[in-house]
């Protein structure tokens, strides 16, 4: 049995054991100031953190030549 076949059979075993009650939808709100994540049906998000995007000052090759 190869690694891929073993992975597929293990994955299938897990899926066979799962019911709809075991599966929860994830909700992600990627807003301009804060990113919030949690499970559908919960009263509040489980994780809240700032939406910060940065890049190096000397970024050569992508947006400008050096």
Automatic annotation (TrEMBL):
Biological source species: Phytophthora nicotianae P1569
Recorded catalytic activity of this chain's protein: ATP + H2O = ADP + phosphate + H(+)
Transmembrane residue ranges: none
Protein name listed in UniProt: Actin-11
Pfam families: Actin
